[in-house]
Amino acid sequence: MLRYLVQRLLQIIPVLFGISCITFALMQFTPGDPAEIMLRADGIKPTLEATRAARHALGLDGPIHMQFMHWLYRLFHFDLGISYSSGLPVWEELMSRFPATVLLSGCSLLTAILIALPLGIGSALYPGRLPDRLGRACALFSVSMPGYWLGLLLIYYGAVKLKWFPIMGMEGWSSVILPAVTLGFGMAGTYIRLIRSSLLDVLGKLYIKAARAKGLQEWKVIGRHALRNALLPSLTLLGIHIGGLLGGSVIVESIFSWPGIGKYAVEAIFAKDYTVIQGYVLVMAVAVVLINVAVDLLHLLLNPRIRLR
To answer: Phi and psi (nearest 5°) for 125?
Structure first.
């Protein structure tokens, strides 16, 4: 296990180096001069002399390869540069908003699991019957409904009409319910269908028939033998969704004015704050890579056949 973990962590290094190269290259082709953007954000007219001075201060007047080496040097010191809009370090800005995104992501995943797990299991155990029809209808409704439309409905009925929840922003635990339900319900449909199909396939295996032939109780057969293997495909998909959620669900965070990194990235795009965009892409790439490593390790723990290989 330790050897496998070390190998995967070593494989991350070239991946992150490639991501940093691509990110730096894309920023070189974006329209607009960062020096002029910074000057306009400070209310200074971007004259030729002022622009030259700003480019020199930002280190943008040197050769491309020197700028790239300087970029890598700053990355090793967790320095993602200074935001053109706020004048604050990008790393501190991202980390100050990261807890809000983690909170929303965790509540959204919990909502998706609470919806998908019972409906997916019920659909597999009673195919063609009422639980199966209810699960498939919920899954179809989930994947067909746009997230922004559900979010607006929840705001209108839950916050405006009934006044049960805050309309926008982050004001205690009650404010996370509406955006978490919006994101969680949108993901639940995919997991319902995946759990149903995986569990139906596992229930037909010989070891499940052998467990039943031994006289084990049905809940032990389902919980200890069938469900453990049926959830492996869902675990892989869960890793992908976690990476997307940590990247900030841009639409939902914008609708609910949730102070996460997704909303921060949208504001940076409109302000053409390229330093923030560059740092955001790199931090999210690192998060996704590390989450995939964690998912692979969970596969090793849950599936003994992988360990044997």
So the answer is: -80, -25
Nearest to 179 by CA among 238, 229, 245, 131: 245
Geometric angle at alpha carbon 47, from 41 and 51, rounded to 5°: 65
d(CA 15, CA 86): 31
pLDDT digits (tens, 9 = 90+) for 155-170: 888 888 887 888 777 7
- Backbone φ and ψ for 163, nearest 5 degrees, come out as 55, 40
Residue 89's DSSP bridge partners are 82
Q: How many CB atoms lie within 10 A of CB 69?
A: 12
**Rounded to 5°, angle at Cα 179 from 176 and 180:** 75
Size of the chain in residues:
309
N- to C-terminal Cα separation, the chain: 12
State the greatest distance between any 2 C-alpha atoms of the chain, in Å, as a whole number.
Answer: 85
The per-residue b/e assignment along 173-196, b for 16 or more CB within 10 angstroms, e otherwise, is: eebbbbbbbbbbbbbbbbbbbbbb
172 DSSP assignment: S
In the three-class reduction of DSSP (H, G, I as helix; E, B as strand; rest coil), residue 259 is classed as coil
Which contiguous run of DSSP H or E holds residue 98?
A: helix 90-125
Cα 168–chain centre separation: 21
Domains and CATH numbers, the chain: 102-308 (1.10.3720.10)
- pLDDT for 308: 45
- Cβ atoms 189, 139 nearer than 8 A: yes
Exposure letters 279-289 (e unless 16+ CB within 10 A, then b): bbbbbbbebbb
Q: Is 47 left (phi over 0), alpha (psi -120 to 50) or beta?
A: beta
Ranges 87-91, 100-104, 140-144, 223-227: which has the least confidence = 223-227
According to the model, what pLDDT value does residue 114 have?
Answer: 92
Q: What is the pTM of this model?
A: 0.79
